């Protein structure tokens, strides 16, 4: 069920949704198989997609939603190719119009919300606003040292993937740094887990999956290439780096030691 954001106080100087929204809308049908949904995400380098039914907006699906669906007890032994977008999609979400003040979308479009807001004209989805779109509005000169989270949740390569996913869910984060003997060696995201679980289910027979999950480790799926930031980097510089490198967070470094992490949501919160 969609909830439409209204704009009762339109101000000429405010940035409007139409000024930043992405007009290319990548969609999947609600009956699309989850393995195909993941491939669409990979192809377009997206972690969140609009789901349609007979061409009309029906929901939103994220890589985190897919990870949870594949990992659900009720789907034990069920392959991604046997599940559909409708089984993982969110049916309750916020929509907006192109003339909505962008500040009204920040809570939903940032990663603290759904991470994607469909933009509607009548009953047609004409665009989306995502956290990446909002990064374009970050102009703050505040230093990352004042914006970062210093107490960072992290995992090790030898941790189980199911443990890492539980940390993400419990603490409402989409990514975790991977530390090996205290050294930053990678990043583990929800998409890495979703793709990893899909491959795992394809390669391990049903009757062996329970025991094999104990050996399904972070080192099997995490990203080795890490884009980082520095303590004296400004929010604007960090936003530009995230957009250029297409990443959702920057571990903040002092020399070769990670001292914090800044996410898209941290930077978006500086928009005034």
Descriptive overview:
The protein is an alpha/beta fold and 272 residues long. It has two domains: 2-135, Roll (CBS-domain), CATH 3.10.580.10; 144-268, CBS-domain (Roll), CATH 3.10.580. Helices cover 31% and strands 23% of the residues. The protein is built from eleven helices and twelve strands. The chain has helices at 34-44, 63-71, 85-88, 106-109, 131-135, 144-147, 161-171, 190-203, 209-213, 235-245, 264-268, and strands at residues 2-4, 27-29, 48-53, 56-62, 93-95, 116-121, 124-130, 175-180, 183-189, 229-230, 249-254, 257-263. It has a three-stranded mixed β-sheet. The protein has a three-stranded mixed β-sheet with strand order 10-11-12. A two-stranded parallel ribbon has the order 1-5. α10 links the parallel β10 (229-230) and β11. α2 (63-71) runs parallel beside α8. The longest helix has 14 residues, at 190-203.
Mean pLDDT: 90
Percentage of residues in strands: 15-25%
Question: What is the H/E string?
Answer: EEHEEHHEHEEHHHEEHHEHEEH
| Rg computed from alpha carbons, rounded to a whole number of angstroms | 19 Å
How large is the count of helical segments?
A: 11
The CATH topology annotation of the largest domain reads as CBS-domain
The residue ranges in which pLDDT falls below 50 over 5 or more consecutive positions are: 3-13
């Amino acid at each position: 069920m969609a909830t439409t954001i209204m704009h009762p106080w339109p101000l000429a100087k405010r940035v409007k949704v139409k000024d930043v929204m992405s007009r290319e809308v990548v969609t999947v049908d609600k009956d699309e198989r989850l393995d195909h949904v993941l491939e669409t995400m990979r192809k377009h380098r997206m972690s969140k997609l609009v789901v349609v039914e007979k061409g009309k907006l029906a929901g939103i699906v994220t890589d985190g939603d897919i990870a949870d669906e594949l990992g659900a007890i009720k789907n034990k032994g069920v392959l991604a190719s046997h599940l559909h977008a409708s089984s993982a999609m969110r049916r309750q979400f916020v929509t907006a119009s192109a003339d909505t003040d962008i500040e009204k979308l920040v809570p939903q479009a940032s990663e603290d919300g759904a991470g994607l807001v469909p933009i509607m004209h009548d009953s047609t989805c004409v665009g989306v606003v995502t956290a990446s779109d909002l990064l374009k509005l970050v102009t703050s000169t505040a230093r990352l040292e004042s914006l970062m989270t210093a107490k960072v949740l992290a995992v090790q390569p030898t941790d189980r993937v199911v443990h890492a996913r539980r940390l993400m869910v419990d603490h409402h984060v989409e990514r975790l740094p991977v530390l090996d003997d205290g050294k930053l060696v990678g990043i583990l995201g929800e998409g890495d887990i979703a793709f990893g679980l899909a491959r795992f289910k394809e390669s391990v027979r049903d009757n062996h999956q329970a025991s094999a999950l104990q050996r399904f480790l972070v080192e099997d799926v995490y990203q080795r290439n890490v884009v980082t930031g520095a303590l004296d980097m400004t929010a604007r510089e960090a936003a530009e780096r995230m957009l250029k490198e297409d990443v959702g967070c920057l571990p903040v470094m002092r020399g070769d030691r990670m001292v914090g992490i800044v996410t898209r949501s941290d930077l978006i919160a500086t928009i005034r």
